[in-house]
Amino acid sequence: MLKVEHLHLSINQNAILHDIQFEIKEGEIVSIIGPNGSGKSTILKAISQMIPIDEQVVFLQGEDLYHVRSKERSKRMSVLFQSNEAPHDLTVQQLVEYGRTPHKKWFQTLNIEDEEIIDWAIEQTGLEDFRHRFVSSLSGGEAQRAWIAMSLAQRPKILLLDEPTTYLDIAHQLQLLELIHRVNRDFGMTIVMVLHDLNQASLYSDRVCMIQKGKIVKYGTSEEVMTRELIRQVYHVDCDINAHFKHGRPRIQWIGIAEGD
Fold this sequence. Notes:
By secondary structure, this protein is of the alpha/beta class. It has helices at residues 40-47, 70-76, 92-97, 112-124, 140-153, 170-187, 198-204, 222-225, 228-235; strands spanning 2-11, 14-24, 29-33, 58-60, 63-64, 77-80, 158-162, 190-194, 207-212, 215-220, 237-242, 251-257.
């Protein structure tokens, strides 16, 4: 589905990413974790071509994204970063309509199929009662759902999310992650997201990519990545691992700063 081969990235002669390599299967949820400044968000920007990278590095469905036109890429891939801003007078309905833009020619109007997809995206995100509200008037959790609805209206094969739970309280974080999980399960959409909360990454991911200083430390299942040794190495904290978390996923219980760090 998505394959990254030997991704190196330097900005202003400073090396940011070092030989990043991983492969994501169709229909998987993969979370990228790591300390602040480790390069997590930069990986998403490189994959989505927001940062120029060399050809023959990122492949989507076997095709080199370097040679895929922007509009065609937007049909296959949608990306949402931490801070998304909409004009003050833009409604939820209008925002979600923008998701159909990659599928339309210049000045082409929405047709019945587009309207049905827009209604579907709004319904899936539980925003029927907010359709005519201004996006700027929504709470953080409601606004995040509106932006995800726009992404769903694109009908992408893969959705990239950069810290989607940032600025949300715990209830809205879990609601949003449940929505992401349901979209993945019901529609087979591949999800790649950056998360800070290791327990959320453990519970909601098929595989986890642990990053430190621009390098992949471990890429595998939650059981393979969420170990006391790796967490101490990367985060410099001690923890206990409960192997009997929901669905058998490991749960991390923090003890404190690792001695000697």
